[in-house]
Design brief:
heterodimer, A: alpha/beta, nine-stranded mixed β-sheet, two-stranded antiparallel ribbon, globular, B: 322 residues, alpha/beta, seven-stranded parallel β-sheet, elongated, binds flavin-adenine dinucleotide
Chain lengths: 264, 322
C-alpha cells in the first residue's frame, strides 16, 4: 500500500519584524517544517514500519528552498518526495486552499495512494482546509483533527479519534481510501538519526511543474485576493513591570501579595 | 440577498457557535438588506429550532437526519439546502466539526472558502479579516465572487439574543447512504485524573518558552511556592511533559481562576479560548508583541529563566538549577 503525506514548509516570523507591502519582509522569516506535518510524517512512518510493502511518499508545494525541509522528512523515514513548483505558482502571492487541493489532487491521480495524511493546518496561513478540500476533490473519505489512529497496513478501515473541543474525542471509523488531517500530540515525532540524515541525501525529491501534472495556470486563479496585511493594533492595556528581572519579580511579588495569593 | 448559517450541536445541546453565527449572519444580511436563514441538522431538531429562533432570524430549516454530527450527512444536507435556499453567503463555524465539513461543502459547491474569519465586511466588496502567523499579523482578503462560503472563528461575535418569529420549515433530504463512508461510534472524555485545574484559584501556566522538559521543575517550584496549581499550553502536553488534564484551551480545559500566570505562552487563539475568563492575567514573555499581552492585566517582558527564579526567591524559595 501507499501513504502520501502532504508536507509544507512554513514561514515563522521573528518577534520583531517589518511589513513590506502585502508580505512580511523576508529578512524576518525563518522556514521550517510545519508543526502539524511533523506528526503526520511520524504517523505515516509508523504505518510503514507496521507492515511489509508500505511505501511512504511526501508531496510539497513549494520552491527549491523547501528541499531542506523535505530532507528532514526523508531522514525520518519517508521513502521519496515530490515537490511541485513553477513560475505560475511562484507568481501567486496567496495560494488558497482550493489551489493547493487542486494541485495535490493531480499528484494523488498520479500516485494512487490508499491513504493521504496532512496536518490539521499550516502554521502560517492557518486555513485549516486543504486536507478536507482535497478529500472532496478526489472522492476520498476523510477525517479532520485526528489525534489517535488505529490502522493496520492494508486494512480497509481506519479507526480514529477526532479531538473535539473541551476534552471530548469523537470515535469514528473511516473507510479507505481516505485523507486524515493530523493533530499535534497524536504521537511523538522522532528526531532524524544521523544515519537517516545520511540516507536522505540519496533519496529522490522529484520536482514537478503544473504542466507535468497535466494542470494549466487556471488552477492558480482564485476569487480570494489578499488586499491588506498589517500588525493588529495592540489592544494591550497591561501594566508592564520594568527594571530588570529582580525588580520586575519583586513588583509581581507585591502584586501577588496584594491579591492575597501569598500571605505576608 | 440571503445568508444561510449552519448551527452546531453536540450531545443534545446547541453550541455557543450557533448563536454567534446568527449574530454574524444578521450583521451581514443587514449590511445589504437581506434575509438570514439558519439550518440545524440532526438531533432534536424541533427543540433546537425553538432555541435558535432568536431576534433577526427569518427562517429556520430543520433536517432530521441522524443524532450527532456526521460529515457525510452534513455535507449532503448543506449542499441540498444550498440548492433550495440559494444563499449568497454560506456561514459555517470554524469549530473542529466545521473543519471537518466546511471545506468539503465549499469544494462540492465550487464556492470560494475563507476560513477562520474574525470580521466580515460587506461594502463595495466582500472583505474578510483573518489572522496569519500565529496572530502576529491580520490580513484582509477580498472575495470576488457572487457566492461565497465563510467559516467564522468561535468567540468573535456575541451570541444572538431575544426571541424571534422565524418561519420554521422541515427540510427533507434524500441522503445517499452509499456516500456515507464514515461512522461515528461514540465519544470519549479525556483529561481526567488527579488534578482538576478548573477548581484552582491560582494557576501557574507554562508554555513552549520553557524549552526543555527538565525546565518544568522551575515552574513547578514556583507553583509550589505560591500554593498554586500547574497548568500548561498544548505543546507541553503534546510533548508528554505534563498530562492532558493540565492543558488549558479549546481542546483542553476552560479555566476561570482568580489569577492566571502565563509563562512563555504566546496566547494563540485556541489557548486563549480556555483562559480569557481569568480574573487577573499576568504574562511573562520575551516578545512584547505576543498576543497574550492583548489580554494580560500585568506583564513582564523578559526572560522567564531570569524572572521565575527571582520570583521564587522573592517569596523565600529556592529555585532549582535549570
Ligand atoms: C484544533 C486545534 C486545537 C488546539 N487546542 C489547543 C488548546 O487546547 N490549548 C493550547 O494551548 N493550544 C491549542 N492549540 C495549539 C495552539 O494553536 C498553539 O500552537 C499553542 O497554544 C502554542 O503554545 P505556546 O504558547 O506554549 O507556544 P508558542 O506559540 O510557541 O509560544 C511560546 C512563547 O514563549 C515565548 N518565549 C520563548 N522563550 C522565552 C523565554 N526564555 N522567556 C519568556 N518567554 C519566552 C515566546 O516569545 C512565545 O510567545 C490548538 C490548535 C488547533 C489547530
Amino acid at each position: 500500500m501507499k501513504v502520501l503525506i502532504a508536507v509544507a514548509e512554513v514561514a515563522e516570523v521573528e518577534d520583531d519584524f517589518e511589513i513590506d507591502g502585502l508580505a512580511i519582509d523576508d529578512r524576518y522569516l525563518n522556514y521550517d517544517l510545519n508543526e502539524w506535518d511533523d506528526y503526520a510524517v511520524e504517523a505515516g512512518v509508523q504505518i510503514q514500519e507496521a507492515g511489509d510493502d508500505v511505501e511512504v511518499v511526501s508531496v510539497t508545494i513549494g520552491p527549491e528552498r523547501a528541499d531542506e525541509t523535505i530532507r528532514m522528512a526523508l531522514a525520518k523515514g519517508v521513502d521519496r518526495s515530490i515537490r511541485v513548483w513553477d513560475d505560475e505558482l511562484e507568481s501567486v502571492d496567496y495560494l488558497d486552499s482550493e489551489t493547493k487541493a487542486d494541485v495535490l489532487a493531480a499528484v494523488v491521480e498520479e500516485e494512487q495512494p490508499d491513504l493521504v495524511l496532512t496536518g490539521v493546518q499550516s502554521d502560517d496561513t492557518a486555513f485549516g482546509a486543504t486536507g478536507v478540500s482535497l478529500a472532496d476533490e478526489i472522492g476520498f473519505e476523510w477525517a479532520a483533527v485526528v489525534n489517535h489512529l488505529e490502522y493496520e497496513p492494508g486494512s480497509e478501515t481506519a479507526s480514529v479519534h477526532r479531538e473535539l473541543e473541551g476534552g471530548v474525542e469523537e470515535l469514528t471509523d473511516v473507510e479507505l481510501p481516505a485523507v486524515l488531517t493530523i493533530q499535534t500530540g497524536i504521537n511523538e515525532p522522532r528526531y532524524a538519526s544521523l544515519r537517516g540524515i545520511r540516507q536522505a541525501q540519496s533519496k529522490e525529491i522529484a520536482p514537478k511543474t503544473l504542466d507535468e501534472l497535466g494542470l494549466d495556470a487556471s488552477v492558480t486563479e482564485s476569487a480570494v485576493t489578499l488586499t491588506q496585511l498589517y500588525e493588529p493594533e495592540t489592544e494591550s492595556d497591561a501594566t508592564l513591570f520594568e527594571g530588570g528581572p529582580d525588580e520586575e519579580a519583586s513588583q509581581l511579588a507585591d502584586l501577588l501579595r496584594d491579591k492575597g495569593v501569598v500571605e505576608g | 440577498m440571503t445568508v444561510l448559517a449552519i448551527a452546531e450541536h453536540r450531545r443534545g445541546d446547541l453550541r455557543d457557535a450557533s448563536f454567534e453565527l446568527i449574530t454574524a449572519g444578521r450583521d451581514l444580511a443587514d449590511s445589504i438588506g437581506g434575509d438570514l436563514h439558519v439550518a440545524v441538522i440532526g438531533g432534536e431538531v424541533g427543540a433546537f429550532a425553538d432555541e435558535l429562533d432568536r431576534e433577526g432570524v427569518d427562517a429556520i430549516h430543520t433536517v432530521a437526519e441522524g443524532e450527532e454530527f456526521n460529515h457525510d450527512v452534513y455535507t449532503q444536507a448543506v449542499e441540498a439546502l444550498y440548492d433550495e435556499v440559494a444563499p449568497d453567503v454560506l456561514l459555517m463555524p470554524n469549530t473542529v466539526n466545521g473543519l471537518d465539513y466546511a471545506p468539503a461543502v465549499a469544494n462540492g459547491l465550487s464556492l470560494p472558502l475563507v476560513t477562520d474569519a474574525i470580521d466580515v465586511d460587506y461594502g463595495d466588496t466582500l472583505d474578510v479579516t483573518r489572522e496569519m502567523y500565529g496572530s502576529k499579523v491580520e490580513t484582509v482578503v477580498e472575495v470576488d465572487a457572487d457566492r461565497v462560503a465563510i467559516s467564522i472563528r468561535p468567540g468573535e461575535w456575541p451570541p444572538a439574543e431575544g426571541t424571534g418569529d422565524a418561519d420554521v420549515r422541515e427540510f427533507d433530504v434524500d441522503i445517499d447512504e452509499s456516500a456515507v463512508r464514515s461512522t461515528v461510534t461514540g465519544f470519549q472524555e479525556v483529561g481526567g485524573g488527579d488534578v482538576d485545574i478548573t477548581d484552582a484559584e491560582v494557576l501557574v501556566s507554562v508554555g513552549r518558552g520553557i524549552e526543555e522538559e527538565e525546565n518544568i521543575a522551575l515552574v513547578e517550584e514556583l507553583a509550589d511556592t505560591l500554593g498554586a496549581t500547574l497548568s500548561s499550553s498544548r505543546p507541553i502536553v503534546d510533548n508528554g511533559w505534563l498530562p492532558k488534564n493540565r492543558q488549558v484551551g479549546q481542546s483542553g480545559k476552560v479555566v476561570t481562576p482568580e489569577v492566571y500566570i502565563a509563562i512563555g505562552i504566546s496566547g494563540a487563539v485556541q489557548h486563549v479560548a480556555g483562559m480569557k475568563g481569568a480574573e487577573t492575567i499576568v504574562a511573562i514573555n520575551t516578545d512584547s508583541s505576543a498576543p497574550i499581552y492583548d489580554l494580560a492585566d500585568y506583564g513582564i517582558v523578559d526572560d522567564l529563566f531570569e524572572v521565575v527564579p527571582a520570583l521564587i526567591e522573592a517569596f523565600g524559595g529556592d529555585p532549582p538549577d535549570v
